[in-house]
Amino acid sequence: MKKSIxxxxxxxxxxxxxxxPALAATDYSSDEIxxxxxxxxxxxxxxxxxxxxxxxxxxxxxxxxxxxxxxVSVMVKLVGLxxxxxxxxxxxxxxxxVTKAMFIKMFIRAMFGVDGLDGIAPDFQHWAAKDVKKAxxxxxxxxxxxxxxxxxxxxxxxxxxxxxxxxxxxxxxRPLSLEKCKPLTKVIKDYDRMDPAYQPYALIVYGSGIxxxxxxxxxxxxxxxxxxxxxxxxxxxxxxxxxxxxVIPSTATREPMILRYDDPYRPVAIEGDTFIxxxxxxxxxxxxxxxxxxxxxxxxxxLGRAHPNGKLIEHGDLCSYEDFLGQPYLxxxxxxxxxxxxxxxxxxxxxxxxxxxxxxxxxxxxxxxxWLLYKYGQWCWIGP
Length: 384
Known about the structure:
Elements: H1 2-37, H2 48-61, H3 72-80, H4 100-112, H5 129-137, H6 157-171, H7 178-181, H8 199-207, H9 227-238, E1 258-260, E2 274-276, E3 282-284, E4 329-331, E5 338-340, H10 341-358, E6 367-368, E7 372-375, E8 378-381
Parallel strand pairs: 1-2
Antiparallel strand pairs: 2-3, 4-5, 6-7, 7-8
C-alpha cells in the first residue's frame, strides 16, 4: 500500500513538473501585461522601451498573433491601453468581426481608460452600457444611438469613421476641415457610390490618415471591419505616428508669386510663394513638419495684410476667412514667426511629441527649440 502511495505521488510530481512551465508562462504573460498596463495612462506612455516589453508579453500570451503581421503594433498598443483583450483560450482573433458594442468599448477605454468610467450610471444592462453612456456624454454617440437592440450588430467602416470624426473634431488640436478634404472626392474611387450620410466622415478620416482605403482605391464604407482593422483605426486616431501619409491635392488657384511684407493687398500666402521680410531677406515658403506653412522660417505672412474691411492685420487680430475663422493671429517676439492659434497648437503638439521621444523627462529647465521648457516634471509651451 505504501509503495502504491509513493508511486502515485511520484507520478503526480512528475506530471506537475511537465505542466507547470506552460502554466507559469501563461500566468507570467498575464501578470506582465497587467503590470505594464499599470504604468500606462495614455498613448504617450508607450515609448519604444514600453512597446518592446508589451510586444514580448502579448506575443507570449496570444498564440494567434504573428510578430511580422501588419497589425501587431496597433493591437499591442491597444492591449497596453487596457482596451483590448483576447479570449479565454489566449486567442486575439485579429480577423474576427467587430460589433458596435465591441468597438465602442475599445474606443472609449483607449481614449479615457477604465478610470474614465468612474461615476457613469448606464441607462440599461449590458457589458458595454457604461462605455455607451460615456460616449454619449462626450458627444461621440447621440443619445439613444446605441441600444441593446443594435449593440450586437457588426459595425461598418463608415460607422466607425463617423464616431472617430466626432472625437477628432473635438479633441484634435488642428483638425482637417471638410473643405480641405474635398479634393479627395476624386481620389476615393467609390466616393460617388457611398451612402451620402458617410461621405463627409470618410473624407476626413481618409485625409487625416486614420482610415485608409483598399489597394484598389475604394473606401468601402459598407464593409464590416475586423478586430485588427478596428484596432488600427483607434490607434491611428490616438497616435499620429501610426497614421498614413496622405497628400491632399492642392486647391490653390494661382501660381506662387513674390509677396512683400509692406503690400497690404497681397493674397493669402501659399506654399512656394517668396516672402520678402522687413529686413529685406527673401524666404521661399514651405509647409513644415507640423503641416503649417512657414513653420520654422521666421515669417509672419499675415501681419500687415488687409482684412476685407481694409483694416491691416495686427498681432491678436481675429481671422476673417474660412480656414481659421475667428482665430487670433499671434506673432512670436523672439523669432518673428506668426501663425493663427490652431497652427500654433499643431506646432506645440508636434514639438512636445518630439521632445518626449528625443529627451524624455530631462532636468528641470531644459529647453527644446525656442518654445518648449521642461518644468514641474513636464514639457511646457512658452511660445505664443
